[in-house]
Amino acid sequence: MKKGINGKTKIIGLVGENIKNSLSPYIHNQIIIKYSLNFCYLPFQVKEADLNDAIQGIKALNIKGVNITFPYKEKVIGFLDEVEESARRIGAVNTIVNNKGVLSGYNTDVVGFKKSLQEVGEFTVKGKKAAILGGGGAARAVVYSILEEGIEEVYIFNRTFKRAGKIKQDFSSFFPESSIYIFPLEKESLKDKINKAHLLVNTTSIGMPPQVNNTPLFDEKLFHSNLLVYDLIYHPAKTLFLKQAEEAGAKIINGLPMLVYQGIESFYLWTGLKPEGKEVLEIVRQIV
Ligand code: NAP
User: Fold this and answer.
1) Of 1, 29, 74, 200, which one's alpha carbon is 20 to 30 angstroms from that of 41?
2) Annotated catalytic, 243?
3) Helices 256-271 & 24-34, crossing angle to 10 degrees?
4) Digit-coded pLDDT (tens) for 2-45
5) Measured from the CB, is residue 136 less than 6 Å from ligand 1?
């Protein structure tokens, strides 16, 4: 963007229902400036009734691609020309690429979580045990990611038990080497499994405003110092869940690295350019 927006500028952006506080426009435009690319990343706030028109508009307006965020990651699949395999298995798309009028869907949350675990958490998944709190769209991407990396056992806890069951049902056959166990989000089952786990991830929205004084883990004594504790929430930067984990001696990560690394992966799909994750994370940390 060194010379500003002009007739050759390529448009990328974000489609969601309520994106006023999203960090993605900042992240992507910072990368664009850093590499002097003739791209511009714009926010597109879209009502559900207009979603199909908005997606078809990507072709009509020759937009290079968009990120898709809450609550459209599942709904958008029906409006695309093709969907990459892992996104299809997960049932959620967070990135669309427009290749000469063909719209392809991807899920870069999977790679985003994997890279952030490796590079920021310095955590190797293979052969380990993980406890996942939540069973929504983000949980599906996280569970898929660690199954791909060879986790030995995954324990999924969700308030709506059926939703956890659906993850097990959908993923088990693709990863026969790993074991998936499902539980309601209740104290007794949590105690035994967290004790065994090396990785504990909060994928629920508990801890986000207005629930900042809440935590998905009912008892802070369940944390232990051999855990890497990951909260997908990045606002606030340190949830009560992470504060209690840190006090118990666990290593902690918030959701910012995953957001940055999934963004980098989307950026690569649109531009063919892959910025260094830690550098981008440093830039973003200056404003949050
Ligand atoms: P979602 O599909 O709506 O799932 C929400 C999850 O939270 C479900 O498991 C839900 O349980 C649980 N939940 C919500 N309120 C609860 C409560 N009061 N008690 C118990 N469980 C509760 O949303 P999502 O897309 O998975 O997103 C979940 C979180 O991940 C959000 O905070 C989002 O911002 C974050 N996220 C972060 C990144 C990142 O890059 N850092 C990426 C994606 C998502 P039920 O199934 O029982 O309703």
Assistant:
1) 74
2) no
3) 50
4) 578 999 999 999 999 999 999 999 999 999 999 999 999 999 99
5) yes
